[in-house]
Write a structure and sequence with these properties.
Layout lengths: L3 E3 L2 E5 L6 H10 L3 E4 L1 H9 L5 E2 H5 L14 H8 L5 H9 L7 E4 L4 H6 L4 H6 L4 H11 L5 E3 L5 H11 L2 E3 H30 L11 E3 L11 E3 L6 E5 L5 H14 L6 E6 L2 E7 L3 H10 L2 H4 L2 E5 L5 H7 L4 E6 L6 H5 L6 E5 L7 E6 L2 E6 L11 E2 L7 H15 L6 E5 L2 E6 L5 H14 L7 E5 L7 H9 L1 E6 L6 H10 L3 E4 L8
Parallel strand pairs: 2-3, 2-5, 3-4, 5-6, 13-14, 14-15, 21-22, 22-23
Antiparallel strand pairs: 1-7, 8-9, 10-15, 11-12, 11-13, 16-17, 18-23, 19-20, 19-21
Length: 508
């Protein structure tokens, strides 16, 4: 049948030999003739298997320091020839070209080399030419050839060969061809982005492997998939599968907590912090974070930058929440937190975020650099007669970190490194402030001697006046309004301090 193809010959040429030995043994048991190159050929011989070198097939040596090995008609002819095309078969016979039914190849580790900080010369040498050509050739002729483009497909290959005694089906070959083009497109995107960053030539190229189907998207009637490697950022220790909305909250939580060095606890709801506090002891950080808005905390996402102890876990367990993230959990804490079957417990492995952010809209994609700026005391410019005291500066920077991660228009009110109230996602800055004041009042948190942070400048003095009447005595904002003087004058007349950062933190 045209659908079924028996593998009788294979070209094996890989950079990474891990996991290859069982595959080679299996091919040998199936009586498959092996062709190989360089280090792979030596590896196969070390296993006691017979293998024919590509050089003996092509009658041409590897040249140019190994840059040219497999790029030859006797290799690519054997891969690309259509088995049912009589002209192709005649040409194979005429030029003594053996057909190749299986190609196992991988690509030079370009991305790994790039990430290592290697020199330009080393990076360029890891741009694969022969491997990428073999992958494309094998995938193009999937009707007759099986292409295996990376070691992560070895288990599937072994299961398939064992099940069918070396016979492949068209649907299987087509699926592996899809793997091949996924590999080549991701690889080429990485190379292009490196050249683009150096040359200034910009086009959008992005590829991610590892598709994780989600239960649904933002709503149950929408499908959703995550592309990426979640396990590099965190390990799931307990609970149900993460959903689309869970992942949005997890990303917001990780980005927020990464800006804090002191022991900090944050509660996230719909990508915004509804409670946050920094304290020497984790139990106090949790207690004061929860006090900021215990109502919104219900069903939220919890995150801390400190190992969770058993006493804190017992207090946390009194609240219904969806997810908790922490760098570690002391003995017995997982037993406490795991009492709810569906509760998701994640251990944070890394805060290594990618430097670019993407958003699809209209008929295209927006790309921008991630907002990694976190202001320091030295960057603040005092613009009022009264300068904030050292402790007040700490609170101003604390509030500014939170407002940076809140949806615009955003206002954050804080004191003593505790979030007292915030307003976010409002159509005016005045409305955001009203919301923040109302939140603090709702939960009995005094704003006396508190601070206010704004993600963008105040176009009028009305917000500063409202904050002062609520008890706020210090303000941090980017500045830059044509009417900045009105806000500054109000502060001077009412004994308030104000600092400009010069940096806006819009978050739409």
């Amino acid at each position: 049948m045209l659908n079924e193809k028996k593998i009788t010959s294979a070209l094996v040429s890989v950079f990474n030999k891990e996991g290859l030995a069982p595959i080679v043994h299996l091919l040998h048991q199936l009586g498959v003739r092996l062709y190989s190159t360089g280090g792979t050929e030596q590896f196969i011989r070390s296993l006691g298997m017979e293998v024919q070198t590509v050089e003996s097939l092509t009658d041409y040596p590897s040249i140019l320091d190994g840059r040219v090995k497999t790029l030859h008609p006797k290799v690519f002819g054997g891969i690309l020839a259509r088995r049912q095309d009589q002209t192709h078969q005649a040409e194979l016979k005429q030029y003594n070209i053996p057909p190749i039914d299986l190609v196992i190849v991988d690509l030079y580790p370009f991305e790994k080399t790039l990430a290592s900080g290697a020199s330009e010369g080393e990076i360029i040498e890891k741009i694969d030419i022969g491997g990428i050509s073999l992958i494309r050739a094998g995938a193009k002729n999937f009707e007759d050839v099986l292409i295996v483009p990376a070691s992560r497909h070895y288990d599937e290959l072994a299961e398939m060969l064992n099940r069918n005694d070396g016979i492949t089906l068209l649907s299987e070959r087509q699926r592996f061809a899809a793997y091949a083009f996924a590999e080549s497109s991701r690889y080429d995107a990485a190379i292009f982005n490196w050249f683009s960053s150096r040359s200034g030539y910009a086009e959008f190229r992005y590829a991610k492997s590892g598709a994780t189907p989600l239960r649904y998207g933002e709503n149950p009637h929408q499908s959703g998939v995550f592309y990426g490697a979640m396990d590099k950022l965190f390990t799931q220790l307990h609970g149900k599968e993460l959903s689309y909305n869970n992942l949005l909250d997890v990303e917001a939580a990780l980005a927020l907590i990464a800006d804090f060095d002191e022991t900090t606890f944050a509660i996230i709801k719909h990508n915004n912090a509804c409670g946050l506090a920094s304290r020497p002891a984790l139990i106090d950080a949790w207690t004061d974070a929860l006090a900021g808005d215990p109502l919104s905390a219900f069903g939220g996402v919890l995150i801390t930058n400190t190992t969770v102890d058993e006493n804190t876990a017992k207090e946390i367990n009194k609240l219904f929440f969806e997810i908790i993230l922490a760098p570690g959990y002391e003995k017995n804490t997982l037993e406490v937190l795991g009492t709810k079957k569906n509760r998701i417990i994640l251990q944070v492995n890394s805060f290594d975020f990618q430097g670019k952010q993407f958003r699809s809209l209209l008929n295209g994609v927006l790309q921008q650099d991630k907002d990694t700026v976190s202001e320091t005391p030295e960057q603040l410019r005092v613009v009022t007669d009264i300068a904030p005291a050292e402790g007040v500066i700490d609170d101003l920077l604390f509030a500014n970190k939170i407002v940076k991660h809140s949806k615009s228009n955003a206002i954050v009110l804080a004191r003593g490194k505790q979030l007292l109230g915030s307003g976010m996602g409002q159509t005016s800055r005045v409305d955001a402030l009203k919301q923040g004041i109302a939140k603090a009042n709702q939960f009995g948190l005094s704003l006396k001697d508190g601070v206010m942070a704004s993600d963008a400048f105040f176009p009028f003095a009305d917000s500063v006046e409202m904050a002062q009447k609520a008890g706020i005595t210090a303000v941090i904002q980017p500045g830059g309004s044509l009417r900045d003087a009105e806000s500054v004058d109000y502060c001077n007349k009412n004994g308030m301090s104000m600092v400009f950062t010069g940096i806006r933190h819009f978050k739409h």
